[in-house]
Predict the structure.
Amino acid sequence: MATIPTLPIPISYITDRYLLFSIDAVMYLRREHHICGVPIGTLPQIPQQNVFLGLPLELTPEEARLLVEKGIAFIIDEASSHNSGLKTLGKEDKSGYLLELEQEGQRAARLQAERKEIQREEALKQISHKINAESEVIQARDPAGDLNALEDSEDPGLFTSYHQSGNQPASSRASVVSGAPMSITPATSYPPLQTLSSCEFSMPLPNVPTSYPLFAHLHSKGYFLAPGLRFGCQYLAYPGDPLRFHSHFLVVSAEWDEEIDLLDLIVCGRLGTGVKKGFLLGGVEKKSHVSEDQDSQSIRTFSLEWAGM
Amino acid sequence: MASDDTANPTYSAKAPPPQQSTKPFKPNYRHIHQFPLPLTVHPLPPLIPHNPLSVISVFLSYLTYFISAPKHEVYSAYFDSATSSVHVTDEKAIRALWEMGFFGKGSLSRSEPSWLEREKKRIGLQGSKTSEETTGKRRAERREWKLERAKKEKEAVAQTLKEEAAAKDHSTTPLNGFDEPQAKNGVTNQSANGIMNAPGAQPREAEAVELEPSVLRDVEINAYDNPVGNKLPNSNKTVRFSSIVEETKFVPELSTPATTPSPTMNGDRFDEDSVQDEEHLQLSNEEAFFLVYGLGALRVFDDRRQSAIPTTSLLQLFRQHSYFPCRDSSAGLESDDPFMISYVVYHHFRSLGWVVRSGVKFGVDYLLYNRGPVFSHAEFAVVILPSYEHPYWFATEERRTRASRKQTRSWWWLHCVNRVQAQVKKTLVLCFVDIPPSTDIPQDDIGLMLGHYKVREMIIKRWVPNRSRD
């Protein structure tokens, strides 16, 4: 399962959104780089709900920028690269890709047939066991005291007969099922098209809000960060994967010399304490004496708790 | 969560239930706070056109008021520029301003100035209750209950252990340890001993000599466990009794409330006059200005408490002090002074009959109470947002940036405030104040000046579809 996609991963830039379409990339980023993003695609099986969503995965500009800066991903202008890529795609490339798709469809069909076969066999086996058990019960109820010898002689016969009857149609059916290949809808455009991190469609670094340094800082400390707008903050900081942990901090970023309304501190402190989290305020420390070439910014964070509740 | 909100929400003016002895005395708030504002009104008798007598009565009452004008109470306060707030120190004024309209806050209390009462209570002069004490008592009770529970659990464990140990003891050395020390000390009367030692009375003298060390050990245990007397039929009971003794020993320590009367050397020395009221009433600048300008019920003196500040210069003063650091000259005043904006909203809601109090504890500007904090919880939490919609504010680039800087709020902030208000069950009201241009504001006529501001309210509610479904 732990497949590593080819690096760098292309992040598709479509209508001001940074999207990922490849499940491998999504899993890899979540596992290795603590980037969760937000799935925004409807699940085709259950379309009338929006609690559980699937691919594509939307990345915030901060997440996209972090990945690009780390060299794990690059951003590609999806629309134009897709258009030009399809135009320049050669005939044999196209047919090769279609052939590949068909082969994959066949493989999938075969896999599914096998799986069905296994399930069927399991079911039959269970039925045979049940019948067997029933017959045993019936025999046990037999009023005659010493039928043991009789049972012993009869039992294997029963078993074999059921086994044979169960097995024979299954094997015959298996050879029959290898029909039409399943049609596969590719979710990514990068198997047919070439991925080049240095192509003309790769985009510059995304514009990020001023909270980016704090985001990068907390991410480097091992926190999983999720957008926190729903909860009244900028980010939620989780100590591990959000599926396993509750978040520890409501994170809000501020400029070093920004004026902060005391009412806002009160309300944020109350909010954090009310949901048993810390309210974390942080930003880049502005040092007057430090020269610019020392590019490691020092980030300072403060957490706040409402004591009266 | 919002329990600290009102002084005591459960209080009502209804007739108390029959078992009054258990319940504390509740003041009749409906009577105490019968006047909504510190104003006395003198209504004329009704004028009935076809009844000439009514005209006469109206005329007569007019005349009486004309000849001897009814005295209009004006309270006095002083402005403290160090804390930029208005203080009321006169006892009568404090009570009046609190009882009629819930103005201000006691400097040593949560809201109602009740320090003196608490202090008297503390030194044991008074029996009635303040809201702080109610909360404190509730907390103390809860803590005590928890301690009690923990103690019970511990006792149960100890008891079973002791019972087991005693059962074992009983089987090995029956009763010997008991008799011997009694005999030695000569405390016991013979009859009690006789009852006790009924099963094994005869051999005890002989055994006692042999079992000397264990006897000594038991002497200590016995002396500790059972200092009251030795009337116990067997050792098993001794254990149970001792646990009771233990309990009586350390219950008083636990149950002593935190507010025990302080050690008074001679209890009757304290009387009503010996406790000085060290508390004063703090009025916010908006409250003070409303009392001065809106109601005419207050005079604000300056720092030296020499001369009363006239209303227009009081407004200037408050506007200057709404900046930090405070602006010295009136030239630096703008139409969007923090004081102007907050006063406009205060005046607006007070005029509509709400009791307006500071909402700092919930991170909002104002809380609106229907009749007052002692009657019910606040219903609405008001957040003030300046709005720059006049074309004046779009004229130049500088004004545009200024306006956008002042009225920009982030989305997460709104969600944050909204969630907190949902936690404390208040309805969030966004109150927009349209800021007039700084230029065409008349500085001398306060009424005209206030007329330039417009207030719009908007209720925000977090709607969760899954929970709002029937």
In short: The longest helix of chain B spans residues 131-172.
